[in-house]
Design goal:
Blueprint (H helix, E strand, L loop, with lengths): L10 E12 L2 E9 L2 E7 L7 E8 L2 E18 L2 E13 L3 H25 L15 H4 L5 E6 L5 E6 L8 E5 L4 H13 L2 H15 L6
Antiparallel strand pairs: 1-2, 1-4, 2-3, 3-6, 4-5, 5-6, 7-8, 7-9
Helix pairs in contact: 1-4
């Protein structure tokens, strides 16, 4: 069961909707995050209603049980009402949580690599930005979090922290991440626009969520 979390997480603002189903009815996923999604669908829902969202990525089925956080009827098509509904995930089905993390990390890595290429003709390997896929040997031994903040003068500061929230002037990651990989992330952050920095904080959240308390 995914723990309910009152913190506001970043979401992917998808360039193209992902076709899926909401309670076995066709739906379009418009925004997607670690803890929920924003979908367009036929019919109406009510707040706190239980629901089930399914979609596929790279041949893997991603499915979450969730509850309606908010909903709004936006238009009528023929005799059908079309609604926009925000869903809060409560439980992953099978390996869906891992598949969702892979989807988000790949998306963010590709966006940041494209921003880098557009800026100076160089390309950052998006694999360097998939933080939760590295440091496996250290993961079980190194605990805690590290916070990186870009100072007004253009230098970076980093400290240990117990706060899992993402700062507005940098990012927070698991303490086991390798310095060389975080240097890549810092360089990407420096050249990124506001949207790029928001996505970096999103991929940092993936790293934070791998930390076992204690």
């Amino acid at each position: 069961m995914l723990a309910h979390d009152r913190r506001i997480f970043q979401r992917l603002r998808l360039a193209r909707p992902i076709l899926g189903t909401l309670d076995d009815q066709n739906a379009l996923v418009l925004d997607l995050g670690l803890t929920g999604a924003f979908v367009e669908h036929y019919g109406v829902t009510t707040p706190r209603q239980s629901c089930r969202l399914k979609f596929s990525w790279k041949g893997d089925e991603i499915e979450f049980v969730g509850e309606v956080a908010r909903t709004l009827v936006v238009r009528m098509t023929g005799n059908d009402l079309v609604s926009h509904t925000g869903i809060r995930f409560t439980e992953p089905v099978g390996g869906s949580e891992s598949h969702l993390q892979d989807l988000i990390a790949t998306f963010v890595g590709n966006v940041l690599a494209a921003q880098k290429a557009n800026k100076d003709g160089e390309r950052i390997d998006s694999g360097n930005l998939t933080l939760m896929e590295i440091g496996g040997a250290r993961r079980g031994r190194v605990r805690g979090l590290k916070r990186y903040r870009l100072e007004p003068g253009g230098t970076w500061s980093h400290t240990s922290t117990t706060d899992p929230n993402q700062p507005v002037d940098g990012f927070t990651v698991a303490a086991y991440e390798y310095e060389e990989d975080l240097e890549v992330l810092c360089r990407a952050y420096e050249i990124a626009d506001d949207e790029g920095r928001r996505l970096i904080r999103l991929v940092a959240e993936l790293s934070v969520r791998t930390v076992v308390p204690g």
